[in-house]
Amino acid sequence: MKHASTHTALCSVILLICSVSIAAAQFKPGDLKLTSGRSALAQSEDHGKDTSKTFGTYTPGAGFTVADTKNGSMNLRIVTYIRYLNQQLLDDKYVNNFGDTSTLRRRSDIQINKVTIYLLGWLLDEKFRYLFYVWTNNTAQGQSSQVVVAGYLSYKFSDYFRLAGGINALPGTRSVEGNFPYWHSVDSRVITDEFFRPSYTSGFWIDGQLAKGLFYHGMIGNNLSQLGIDAGQLDANISTFSLALKWYPTTGEFGKNSSYGDFEDHKELATRIAGHFTGSNEDEESQSNSDAFDNTQLRLSDGSLLFKPNLFGQGINIKKAQYMMMNFDIGLKYSGFSFDAGYYYRWLNNFGGDNLQLLDFDRIER
Q: How high is the pLDDT of residue 258?
């Protein structure tokens, strides 16, 4: 069954970007070290004086050091920005491929659009790392997932193997294979990536280096997107997995977290080739009548929620589906310039629900 894509134009102007983190331009490939704040404090000749200008050090990407002891460390990092959004030039009606009309509530407002507060460091052993954060996208999300308090723990056994658990992004595309929660200062995923990619969930993952310039990343999780989904809405089977294989043939790296744009100003051509595969058995998670942020993963190309009752005809309800998605990407960086390209292929099958024998298809591809 084919569905025509529809295009929606958004007019969004960023008025102010305010971040305690220094921009990605200040990163050198591979840099992310938690430096001690004690050395700066020791340089003060009189500890009885105001030490606010000397206490603690700042490390790009890690923030300010607030504790550094023999038993562990803690850094504080904050990212936020203010946005003005104007949708008044959009049509106030939207008709999908099935002829259903929706009324759009067009916005024109100012929001502190995103605030993220990170606490990160190590405990007992520098190989045992933690990252906890409070994150909100405020009015852009549903109420149940407006504020997220989460994080993860990890232990690095060697350069070849690290084990971690908590909330993370399934590594199904380049934009989510390792940057979470180190967001771009302003999220810059293209619409294609937003449509195809998996999302964030609780799970376990491993990553490491297979050979020089060749890296792997694999994760198993609860579902494709756990934002706004409580434990009682999850099914009893863990069937979500995602794998990524990344090769950097020339320089052995591609900037911090394979960031977009050559903010590192590579003097030697940096190259990247990567493949990803994600699979998950999904259901309506007790939200079949919801079109909110909480239930956004499986949609058709016109934006329709796959699990919407009677979407394909009266009495026909898809309540379960298997999601499979492949993604390949390549990238080049040199002297401040970059080139990136990607290919996505997704298919949905193994449907379960009511009166599905009336469907004239058993697979949806895009």
A: 84
Residue 184 tokens read as 């771009």
Q: Is 246 exposed, middle or buried (0-12, 13-18, 19+ CB in 10 A)?
A: buried
Residue 188: its pLDDT value, please? Answer: 59
Question: Which residues have C-beta within 8 Å of that of residue 211, sequence separation ≥ 6?
Answer: none
Measure the CA–CA gap between 173 and 298, rounded to whole angstroms.
16
CA distance 291 to 95: 15
Q: 319 is written with which tokens?
A: 């309540």
What pLDDT does residue 267 have?
94
- Cβ contacts of 149 within 8 Å, gap of 6 or more: 132, 133, 134
Q: CA nearest 322: which of 293, 363, 277?
A: 363
| Residues whose CB is less than 8 angstroms from the CB of residue 341 and which lie 6 or more positions away in sequence, other chains included | 329, 330, 331
Q: What is the pLDDT of residues 154-176, one digit of tens each?
A: 999 999 999 999 999 899 998 88
